[in-house]
């Protein structure tokens, strides 16, 4: 079995090899999530990604290849690169004490629409409604309305990714995200797994993540392709 360091170099691949194996779609050694769950793809051999992406895009309008250093190859007669997101990976070193003053709720299936709507309000474009099935989601409510969430996304037997850190614009700068990240991180640690997260380079939220004990460890780039 791959160790933690190996897994973190290719988190999509190992998530689909372990915890998320039920969501796996594979074409010639290139691994993808089923498109209704997520459109992430992973590989070790970039010579295989062109053919595999053509196959995958028969059932999806887009895909994200995720890699640390490798550049995927595509068939530019059928696929175009919409954007490359220069990202980074952060791994928890030590979680500081964080006072939890809000009532944080584990969100079940009945909140799937509210989660989707909140994420699309704040970060439109990429979250799938059934991404809810990738891990646990936690939320804070005000006056009966879901106004802040965190979720879990990629995961294996060794790590779980904190993701979908979103707060309604009317409730930002109140420390809600900080409390939710701390809570989600504690839940991951209870499973004896390592909390990780991914973000864009230069994201202002990086300073918050660092205050919560996360350290920048490596690049993790996201190549968004769409079919022509």
Query: What general form does the structure show?
Result: globular
| Number of E-state strands | 13
- Integer average pLDDT: 97
Q: Helix count?
A: 6
CATH topology of the largest domain: Aminopeptidase
Strand coverage percent: 25-35%
Supply the number of structural domains.
2
Query: Percentage of helical residues?
Result: 10-25%
Order of strands across the widest beta sheet? 7-8-9-10-11-6-12
The CATH architecture assignment of the largest domain turns out to be 3-Layer(aba) Sandwich
Q: What is the assigned CATH homologous superfamily of the largest domain? A: Gcn5-related N-acetyltransferase (GNAT)
Radius of gyration, rounded?
17 Å
**Level-1 CATH class name of the largest domain:** Alpha Beta
- Report, as a whole number of angstroms, the end-to-end distance: 39 Å
Low-confidence segments: none
Helix and strand content put the structural class at: alpha+beta
Order of helical and strand elements = HHEEEHEEEEHEEEHEHEE
For the biggest sheet, the summary is:
7 strands, mixed
What does this structure look like?
With 228 residues, the chain is an alpha+beta fold. The chain folds into 2 domains: 4-87 and 223-227, Aminopeptidase, CATH 3.40.630.30; 90-218, 3-Layer(aba) Sandwich (Aminopeptidase). The chain has helices at 4-9, 11-17, 49-56, 112-122, 176-190, 206-211; strands at 24-27, 30-33, 40-42, 62-67, 79-85, 87-92, 105-107, 137-142, 145-155, 159-167, 194-200, 214-219, 221-227. The longest helix is centred in the last third of the chain and has 15 residues, at 176-190. It is globular, with a radius of gyration of 17 Å.
């Amino acid at each position: 079995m791959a160790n933690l360091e190996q897994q973190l170099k290719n988190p999509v691949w190992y998530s689909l090899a372990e915890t998320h194996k039920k969501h796996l779609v594979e074409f010639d050694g290139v691994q993808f999530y089923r498109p209704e769950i997520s459109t992430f793809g992973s590989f070790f051999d970039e010579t295989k990604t062109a053919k595999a992406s053509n196959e995958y895009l028969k059932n999806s309008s887009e895909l994200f290849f995720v890699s640390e250093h490798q550049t995927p190859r595509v068939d530019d007669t059928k696929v175009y690169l919409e954007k490359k997101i220069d990202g980074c990976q952060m791994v928890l070193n030590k979680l500081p004490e964080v006072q939890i003053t809000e009532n944080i709720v584990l969100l079940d299936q009945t909140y799937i629409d509210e989660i989707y709507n909140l994420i699309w309000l704040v970060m439109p474009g990429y979250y799938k409604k059934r991404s809810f099935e990738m891990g646990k989601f936690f939320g804070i409510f005000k006056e009966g309305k879901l106004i802040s969430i965190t979720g879990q996304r990629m995961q294996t037997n060794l790590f779980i990714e904190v993701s979908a850190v979103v707060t309604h614009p009317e409730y930002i700068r109140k420390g809600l995200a900080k409390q939710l990240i701390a809570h989600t991180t504690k839940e991951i640690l209870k499973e004896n797994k390592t909390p990780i997260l991914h973000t864009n380079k230069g994201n202002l939220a990086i300073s918050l993540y660092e205050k919560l004990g996360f350290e920048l460890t490596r690049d993790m780039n996201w190549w968004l392709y769409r079919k022509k």
